[in-house]
Design goal:
The chain has about 50 residues and is mostly helical. The chain has one domain.
Length: about 50
């Protein structure tokens, strides 16, 4: 129930940000779990990224 309330609150904000990006000629999308985990891993383990 809490998750559903959060989604109702956050989806319009997501849509607004995507619309503003589009107005600037940029394309954005909501990250899925795998993409989000990958980004957090890169942020918190920057030395791993340098060795790749």
């Amino acid at each position: 129930q809490l998750l559903e309330k959060a989604k109702i609150f956050l989806y319009p904000k997501r849509d607004h940000i995507l619309k503003q990006l589009s107005r600037m000629g940029l394309v954005g999308h909501q990250l899925n779990n795998t993409e989000l985990l990958s980004e957090f891993y890169t942020i918190y383990n920057p030395e791993e990224e340098e060795n790749v």
